[in-house]
Design goal:
The structure holds two protein chains of two kinds. By secondary structure, chain A is mainly beta. Chain A contains two helices and 28 strands. Chain B is mostly helical. Classes of the chains: A mainly beta, B mainly alpha. At the A-B interface, strand 24, strand 27 and strand 28 of A face helix 5 and helix 10 of B.
Amino acid sequence: MPLTATERLRISRRAFLAALGGASLLANPASSTQAFAEHLAWMDRADAPLFASARKQPDGSFAIAVFDDSGRELARVPLPDRGHGLALSPDRQVMVAFARRPGTFALAIRPFTNASPRLISSIQGRHFYGHGCFSGGGRFLYTVENDYENARGVLGVYDMTDESPRRLGELDTFGTGPHDILALPDGKTLVVANGGIQTHPDRPREKLNLGTMRPSIVFLDAATGDLRAKHELTADLHQLSLRHMALDGAGRVWVGGQHQDKTASPPLVGFVSPDRELTLCPLPDRFTGLLDNYIGSVTANRTGDVIATSAPRGNRILFWNAETGNFIPDQTVPDGCGIAPIDRDGFLVSDGLGGLTYLDAPDSQPLVLSRPPGVAWDNHLFAL
Amino acid sequence: MRLLTALSLFLPLAVPLPGIAQDIDYSTRIENAIEGYIRPAVDGFAEEALDFPQAVASVCDHPSANSRAAFDAEFDRIIDRFAEISFLRFGPLVEDNRLNRLAFLPDPRGVAQRQIRKLRSDSDLLSLTREDLQQKSVALQGITAMELIAYDTSANVTLGTDTPEGRADCAYAMAIAENIAEIGEELSDAWHDPKGYSADLLDPGPDHPTFRTSAEVMETVFNALPVAIVILKDQHVLPVTGGGPEKAKPAALPFSRSGHGITYLASSIAAIDDMIHAMDLVPLLSGPDKRLPGGISFETRNGLSVLDRIETPVRTRFEETGGYQDLSVFVFTLNSMQNILAGQLAPALSLAGGFNALDGD
């Protein structure tokens, strides 16, 4: 199937798509290689912000797609199974795509060189949780993994200096079911959201400890793995699985959760810092029962003063004032989940119906930019 | 039908509930959809599209008020027939990028207009063929491009102007019309191919690369309906009305340039109703749920009645004729249709959920 780019975009990232063309060899060499080659001929000047996301293709296969700010697809990297999150190196020279949990593959792509993408397989006894991040300097990749025989969260540590990622070892996350991970701007600290839910690949997606789960946000020394701070929820909220995170402009960590008790109406969003416990932000009463207690992703705008959280089961994007923690009016985006910053204040939202929706501000009229037929965007959207 | 909780307003991407939908045999409903709706609809589009080149030739070779009116009537029929297939966002319409080639929607940033401007300045349109066009951007190839070159912004047909530019546009229009006709034939052939996509839908199995069960097929086929409502509402209508009456943007309605945007909306909801009834879902329903397909018909009639009140062309008549109020009421109709499709009918058929709503991601 050809790419759906609609006009010949000119960008300077020739090598970027050259490398993605190599990535296509992983699963579907013929169609994608041809498509990439078609586009390489005219890419010679940078003029558009790029985005990437995992998605389901019309034929039921899975891929990572790269597209511009008008939704034009520029490149596609086939994946062997459903993807989830991406880790981007600080200099944006490396992009690592992770399998959806409990997947065991990740794909490291060096877009600005002609190096072939490299497959990273989780080691025996571990699987990925769909997320990862780079160290501040970009040398190390931290992958969120499940030591499922011991119900223990770990971070795989990979040296990304060479083309082939090399696993150096692993760090403890001091919790169960780690999901998202961030590197703080100080270059020394990692933040991990331990969702608290025990799972085992022999019983995929089954939750094994709902009665005793203890989610947490932990701050770790990136070099030693030492625990610097651990914040847990009060006993009455122990079933609020803390999942996704984003940094605001003041350096606070915003967290979105998923509560396991469908009859409860807890707050689902909050913020935390190493020396300050998690502050949960109340939702307006009108959302009671509407969101199915599920936040799917968390993203800050470019200035870091507005936080966007998606609630795909409620078809809502919820916005928060990062300084005050107050709720800002929501927007409706059916099955909308992936969110990325765009421009100074805006957001781009991807959804499970193939839509890419532009919001130039939280209270502006959503504008659907593109909706490739048969496509379902996965949970997370990234600005490259 | 309007008493549903807001929770069920949008459950647009249905997937089978484990252990329930998998036990239901949907094959008869799928066969009904193919034979009772999809094939007749694509055949209808294909037949209408075959007339499109002649309509272009008439207005270009013999420009007159009559030939322009005839072209406009043909364009309206094309929009009508396109609306009947445009929501079938699976299989042949998706393959080879046919849907985007037929109509480049949405296009809020005017990509097609920019590309047409560039095409006019860079190319010798007089020698442009259908084959040439098929090598160009999808935004240049279909109905939306035809509308941009054949109409002015007040819904007047401008094709057939006896100027160098007019003759060039006629050549371009002919290439578009022939391209649309060819895609129509391809669609019809693909849906009638006994070994083609129909066979994929009718013969799922454990070794099938896409569909292992009839429930997975049903997921694909049924999902097209609530997704169609989402597109109509969020993508087509709310950009017109969402900013409030002072900021209404009737030009944002697809096919409003030609004055046929309301045709597109009306035909779209009628098509959804037709597909529901062609599938004959009642045997899979029990108790009060058996009335749900009738509820779709009820809401469809409401929607058509509201749309019938809107005077066209909306770009010039919207403000003075209260179009904003009527189109806002139409949004309520779409909500009600979505309530039934996603909030009631999907669960009643053991279909529920969403791609991004699975536990723990």
